[in-house]
Design brief:
single chain; 2 helices
Length: 165
């Protein structure tokens, strides 16, 4: 069947027969059908235009959706990279802090060893000093005791001062 237009309907001629249909009524009906077909064709054109517009909008939305998805993927990838970078930096900072803490601990142990050595040395010096003080006290006590014994026994012959020689 060929495409039927409103003009085809209105200009259609029928063969006349005796006792045929009322030509005015047929013509009126054909005019009504032609008008309805014209309206439907216009509506169809309008619907096709609307469909084209909607398809264009759909394509635009699909393109935007692709762009948004690509942007979201890029943002997610950047966020993941930033997390990895932050994690690596924190690991480096932690390692550096551990190394510094270890060095401080080693230094503290070294200082402790040096202090303990100094304390040991001071204890030895103290013991030596106490020994010397005791010896000096003992010497003075012996001298005092000898002098006290001398005082009780009487005068001792004075000795002449040493006359170098």
């Amino acid at each position: 069947m060929t495409d039927l237009t409103p003009i085809d309907i209105t200009q259609r001629e029928f063969t006349r027969s005796f006792r045929g249909l009322d030509p005015v009524e047929v013509k009126s009906f054909l005019d009504t059908v032609a008008e309805e077909l014209q309206r439907l064709l216009k509506a169809n054109v309008s619907q096709e235009e609307r469909i084209r517009n909607l398809e264009i909008r759909l394509q635009m939305h699909q393109q935007r959706e692709r762009e948004v998805n690509e942007a979201l993927f890029a943002v997610q990838r950047m966020a993941d990279e930033m997390k990895d970078k932050s994690r690596k930096e924190s690991e480096l900072i932690l390692k550096d802090a551990e190394i510094k803490a270890q060095k401080l601990l080693e230094h503290a142990h070294l200082m402790l060893g040096q202090m303990q050595a100094k304390i040991g040395d001071l204890k030895r010096q103290k013991a030596l000093f106490e020994g010397r003080i005791r010896a000096a006290i003992k010497l003075h006590q012996d001298l005092l005791a000898a002098e006290a014994a001398e005082d009780m026994s009487g005068p001792i012959d004075p000795k002449p001062p040493y006359a170098g020689g």
